[in-house]
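User: These chains co-purify. Model them together.
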Amino acid sequence: MDFIRIPFGNLVENIVIWLTDNFSTFFDSITAIINVALNQFKTILVWMPWPITIIIVMVLAWRFAGRRVALIAGLFLYFLGSFKLWTEGLNTLALVATSVSVSVLLGLPLGILSARYEPVHKLIRPILDGMQTIPSFVYLIPAVMLFGIGNVPGVMATVIFSLPPMVRLTNLGIRQVSNEAVEAGKAFGCNEWQLLTKVQFPLALPSIMTGINQTVMMALSMSVTAAMIGAGGLGVKILYAIQRVHLSVGVEAGLGILFIAIILDRILQGYSSRQKRARHLS
Amino acid sequence: MQYDPKIHCENVWKIFGKSSEKVMKASPSDRDDIAASLHCTIAVREANLEIREGEVFVIMGLSGSGKSTILRCLNHLIQPTHGRVVIDGKDLNTLNAKDIREIRQEKMGMVFQNFGLLPHRNVLDNVALGLEVQRLTSQERYKRTREALDLVGLLDWEQYYPNELSGGMQQRVGLARALAVNPEMLLMDEAFSALDPLIRRQMQEEFLKLIAIVKKTIVFITHDLDEALKLANRIAVMKDGRIVQIGTPEEIVMQPADEYVSEFVSSVSRSKVVSAKNLMMEPDKWISAEKEDPIAVLNKMRKNDIDSIFITDFTNRLVGVVSMKRLKETLNRSPAGLKYMAHQDYASVPPDTNLEDLISHAAQTKVPIAVLDEGERLLGVISRSSLLEKLADLI
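Assistant: Joint model of the two components:
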């Protein structure tokens, strides 16, 4: 006896085709918006002379994470330039910045909603599990169908991959706020918005910052995959190195991604622990 | 006398769990079994309370007795499954969310066991929370905030953060936050239970002084009998979600309603709750009006077998004491008004004087002790023999 064929794949494909046919203006406008954001980041980063960029990053690192991190950041950025990967590195940075902005913009409200309304939480949780578990190559296909080839589908695929930690940690942070603090807010007559802005959000901030940090790291790890559908940056170099078995290019581009990851991670962590101390939350 | 209670709970039930309604629909005798089978917990059952304006009402019980739940029903932080909570004649069930928020903002301040302060705000902004929610201008807000901080003695600490303060100070911030909105009622959930014993007693003393100034209706939750006896005008004892007795501290200790309450109060020394007003006798046979005929008074004293008598004026205020000896002497020489024979050598105490103080007064004077109210009116007398009798009962 044979299995009955359930044409699930066809169904999904038809839905995506139907979406592209009927909502092309909608997807085009998303493409346009993301392109604008991306180009803004890129223009600023590429326009700036490299020594100034390095100095700015070093100052940020020094302010938030100390002298040692500042020196390492400066050294790493110089290496990136000396590998002749400066423009590619900045392109990757612009892609990450754009994806993370979209992830935060979507993830923050979703996390807040799922912390405050149990049905939303129940609905969102399996979807997040799916987004993180399904191999990222799979959703490259609908991304290409909806947004074409280039940076924008790369950003969209990155957002899908890096959104879950943002939602999860926002949700977790708000749920972890001490029950007494929430009760105090309610007992003094806070409405829902006041409760959120005066009590829950400020107390959840450390957790939310961790969420942003993780989102950044996951977005960086998507750069090679995103390059397969036309996103630029260091991922393209690595993809090239794989296709040509070109070890020297692969090593340098791989290290480039690592450098950017370390610098971003240290600066963000430094920033969030400074915030924690300043707000007496640690 | 007809009076409207400030807070009125009428047959309040709270059942936790998804099927709480189903449990409530069952007949009262089956509810426990049904709750157990549906994984519901009955936290409060059939609670009836009338809390009067200006009194300190303590709800006492062990953990899990439902006392915190009932407190949260009063401001609908927890919505009762059944029954009504009426505040100032308004049934909270009939109000929408906005009206309930207004009642919470304006009428009720709440103090929490673990303080419930916001760690990211300094003392000033923590205390200002309630006023901020009411959208007062920052000038008005901080003016009233500082007044509240002054009441609890933390004016110099406004720039500090909660994690920089001791437990006792944090709870004073919590108290100031509740007082800042100038509410009519204070809901205090085990407010002093997280403090160590020394600080705790100190806070209780300060709290008593404070409420003498600010005059609020106070609902105070505690598991500590000593605390309840110290603070309460009336006490409700809870067990397994049910209120088993409501009464004054004296009634709870002297006439426990059932075995549970009597076990609860067995540890407390009764002398703590016995005060002059429980011991005093009706003053009738000890009193004479100042206009009375001295000879009639002499006869009255002989008849009642007493050595001295209290003389009162027409407003029932105490004028002095006349002894039998002095009365006889004066009558033999030249008759005069009782007022002119009276001396002031007697002890007088307010009605809430405790046993220990009464005994030391009794040791110093032969005349019975007079119990006077604030207007110097004679409420009753305590003779040495009656004091000894009571002592024998208590031991």
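The interface with chain B takes residues 178, 180-181, 183-191, 194, 198-199, 202-203, 279-281 of chain A (CB under 8 Å).
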